[in-house]
Every structure is written in C-alpha cells, then in structure tokens.
C-alpha cells in the first residue's frame, strides 16, 4: 500500500521530471539551486538548516496551475486531497497588480508539521473570474463560460482514484501507479492546436486569461525549487545567460532574520504551439506562458508581523516614488536613503523590523515552536513562568516556524513580470466579490487560515513545555 505522503512525494518528483523535459531551463534552475545550497551549507554549517534540513530544502517544490471554474477547482481539490494536501489561504491577484490578472487563488499543501517534514510539496492554484465586469463584458463572459463548461481537465478514473485515496488514506500499489500516471498526464502541456482567434480575443484582455480559457486543458505554469541564497542564485543564473525578471519579489536581503518569502524567476520562454486559424488550417506558432520560478523561505510572521510587512511595503512605495526611474531624489530624506529601491527597502527594514529572532518572538511578530533544553539549569531552582524568561534563562529554546504560504503582491509581481502586455481592465466597473468563504463553498471544503495553522503549531509546543516543566503546578 502507498500512503498519501508517499503519493505526494512521488507525484512531486515525477512532475519535476516531466517539467524538466518540457522546459529545459527549469533543469538548469534546479541544478544551480542545488549548487548554491551546497555552498551555503559548507559555509554556514548547521545555521544553514535553521529553517529546514538540507534534504527537505533540496526536495522541496511548489507548483502553479490555473483553472477556469469553481467546478474545475473542486476537482483539483479532490486530486490534491489524495496527496494529503488542503486548501490554505485566499489570494486575490486582481487587486495585487496594475496589469490585468483576473484570478483568485489558493494553495494546496500539507498542514501537519510531520507531513510537511516528510514532503512539503504545495501547488499555488489560480481560478479565472469571468464574472468580473472589469475584465469581461457580458458577451465575452457568456462565450468564455460556455467554452470552459465544455472541456474536461481531469478524467473520471483519476477523480475516482483520488476519492479512494482520500477515504482510505492510501492506495494499493497498482492503483497508486495508475493514479500517478493520470495525475502527471493531466498537467502536461497539450499538443492539441489552439484556436488562434479565440486565444487572441482573450489575450487582449489578459495573457493569464488566455492561458486559462483559451485552451482545452491545463498545465503546470511553473515549478519552483527552494534555494538558501536567492541573491546568489539570481547572479549565477544571469552569468549562465538566462534572462531573469528585473527583481526579487518580497522582503529585501538584510542583516536580520529572513521573513516570509522571497521569489524570482527566469522570463517566460517562447514555446512552439500549434494554432488553428479561421479557415481550419493548422500553423506553427509560439506562446510565452511558462517560466521558471525559485524561492527562498523565511520565518512565518503573526498577524501583527504581517501588518508591519504590509505597512513597510506602503512606505517603500511612497519613498521610492520620491525619485522614480533612478532619477535624483527630490527630498533630503530620499537622498539619505539612496536612489535604489533595494537600498530603500533595507533601510526601512533596519528601522522597523527586529534584528534578531529573539526580539521577533518577544514582540509577537513571528511564530516559533518552543522546546525544553535537555541541559537546562540544574541548580534546583524553579523555572520562570513567562516564555520570554524561559528562553532568556536557558530553560527553553525557540525554533522558527517556516513560512509555508504565499504573498499576493509577490505572486502578482512574478505573473506581471512575465507578461508581454498589461492587458485591459475597466476600473469604472465594480469588481465581482470573491473571498475565502466564497471559495470554501465553491469547492465544498474549508479554505484554511494560515495564521491559525501557525498559531496552533506554536501553542501546541507551549503546552508541551508547560507539561514538561510542570508549569501548571503539578509536582515534579
């Protein structure tokens, strides 16, 4: 019998092999990531594994797919449910970028700490929003919804096997093999000719909309390895002649704790795709829709930590606007901060973000698990009751919780950087309402709150500390 986590690990590995064959530059990205990770491990030793063992980091991937309807998203949830993955978080990319990106998203991933340690594979999954009049008028919406309703992304056999894996939490060897074959095939790039006129109609609205609603299948849009030094990765990829997007998305590189998530990618490559013209003939064309992303993960932050991050992004936008396009600063404050957005960000982080993990925990800005130290003070004294004092006096150590989720502005920034045009949107129209509650109903399963998951993990560790140290007053 093959357990869910084994299915997940096998699926991630096979998907990576398939994507490497389809997009050779992805294999280069994986190779360079491995080289950087090995170099960081040699230079930093155990500190390099502060946010996960090197075996986990090396195996770690996140994928990204795009679907068109709630029904398709519900089927995706069944497939990933077979792998022990749950929908976590709601991301509205429509509001996160200036370009037309008419999608809302969630991420399917394991949620249990042990499951994440075994294999942390996650898939960022976006769904098109045809009901949003800012992007689609009534006629185009009707045509788009009819097109989407007529296609089948996942064969019934795959869904039946997925449901069995969810119910029984495992599959027999032969059924597991069949499930993996069908699941990987569902995300391969189709060779079916694209309706050229229909695709271009959607592309005028949004290249993302065309990639979702202009074809009769779905595919892996990108697959992302994890790297321990994303700045060095960016430099080495550029040296190899691979064109990277202009910037690394997310928090800046700085001297303090790594927070949240940093991402970058190589630019979407022109891939040959057969196209069917109005007269029915098939011609050879090319589309730029898939790219290679890489990520560096940091510490999960609390709601207060996230509010601080969002506040700093706003400040960064304001200060960067004082001297756009690298031009001369227009105030003494801007001049003191320099004329580079990255330097602006570093300065802001140094001003406002705690410079150590201990300060981060003490100010309630980051999530940690807490563990009793084996060689804690043995002088017969009673331990203090406060967690800060326990850490300070050597009774307990704090270990940072890895951020397992995503940032909508960063995701939109990656999408936007790989688009050939900004598309079109009518901001005079009122956008259609989507939120986490709506998405939960659409896929008939709860979209989990990532903050609640991190808080539960932290609280469980605190309860274990209290029990071991008899902080509840129980005699030792």
UniProtKB/TrEMBL annotation:
InterPro entries in the record: HGLS (IPR009770), YdcJ_bac-like (IPR047869)
EC annotation from Swiss-Prot or TrEMBL: 1.13.11.93
Name of the top EC class for this enzyme: oxidoreductase
Pfam families: HGLS
Cofactor: Fe(2+)
Family listed: Belongs to the 2-oxoadipate dioxygenase/decarboxylase family.
Record's keyword annotation contains ATP-binding: no
Gene3D superfamilies in alphabetical order: Uncharacterised protein PF07063, DUF1338
Source organism per UniProt: Streptomyces sporangiiformans
Keyword Iron part of the UniProt annotation: yes
Protein name: 2-oxoadipate dioxygenase/decarboxylase
GO MF term (any one): dioxygenase activity
Keywords: Dioxygenase, Iron, Oxidoreductase
């Amino acid at each position: 019998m093959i357990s869910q986590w084994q299915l997940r690990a096998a699926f991630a590995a096979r998907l990576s092999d398939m994507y490497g064959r389809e997009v050779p530059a992805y294999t280069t990205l994986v190779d360079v990531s491995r080289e950087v990770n090995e170099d960081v491990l040699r230079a930093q030793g155990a500190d390099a594994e502060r946010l996960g063992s090197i075996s986990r980091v090396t195996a770690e991937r996140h994928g990204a797919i795009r679907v068109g309807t709630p029904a398709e998203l519900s089927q995706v949830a069944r497939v990933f449910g077979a792998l022990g993955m749950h929908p976590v978080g709601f991301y509205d990319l429509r509001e996160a970028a200036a370009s037309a990106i008419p999608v809302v998203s969630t991420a399917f991933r394991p949620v249990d700490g042990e499951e994440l340690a075994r294999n942390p594979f996650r898939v960022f999954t976006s769904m098109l929003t045809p009901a949003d009049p800012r992007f689609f008028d009534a006629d185009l919406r009707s045509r788009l919804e009819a097109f989407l309703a007529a296609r089948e992304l996942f064969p019934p056999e795959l869904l039946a096997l997925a449901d069995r894996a969810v119910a029984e939490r495992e599959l027999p060897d032969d059924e597991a093999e069949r499930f993996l074959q069908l699941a990987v095939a569902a995300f391969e790039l189709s060779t079916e000719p694209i309706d050229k006129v229909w695709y271009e109609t959607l592309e005028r609205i949004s290249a993302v909309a065309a990639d979702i609603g202009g074809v009769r299948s779905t595919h892996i849009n990108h697959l992302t390895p994890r790297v321990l030094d994303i700045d060095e990765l960016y430099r080495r990829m550029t040296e190899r002649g691979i064109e990277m997007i202009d910037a690394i998305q997310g928090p800046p590189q700085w001297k303090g704790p790594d927070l949240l998530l940093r991402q970058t990618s190589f630019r979407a490559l022109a891939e040959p795709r057969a196209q069917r013209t109005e007269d029915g003939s098939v011609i050879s064309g090319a589309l730029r829709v898939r790219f290679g992303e890489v990520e560096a993960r940091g510490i999960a932050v609390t709601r207060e930590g996230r509010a601080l991050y969002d506040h700093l992004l706003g400040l960064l936008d304001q200060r960067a606007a004082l001297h756009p396009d690298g031009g001369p600063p227009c105030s003494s404050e801007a001049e003191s901060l320099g004329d580079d957005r990255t330097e602006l960000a570093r300065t802001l982080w140094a001003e406002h973000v705690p410079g150590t993990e201990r300060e981060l925990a003490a100010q309630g800005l980051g999530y940690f698990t807490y563990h009793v130290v084996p060689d804690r003070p043995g002088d017969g004294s009673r331990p203090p009751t406060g967690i800060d004092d326990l850490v300070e006096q050597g009774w307990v150590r704090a270990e940072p919780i890895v951020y397992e989720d995503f940032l909508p502005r960063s995701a939109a920034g990656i999408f936007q950087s790989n688009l050939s045009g900004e598309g079109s949107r009518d901001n005079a129209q009122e956008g259609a309402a989507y939120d986490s509650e709506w998405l939960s109903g659409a896929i008939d399963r709860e979209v989990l709150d990532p903050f609640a998951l991190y808080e539960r993990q932290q609280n469980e560790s605190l309860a274990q500390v209290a029990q071991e140290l008899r902080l509840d007053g129980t005699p030792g």
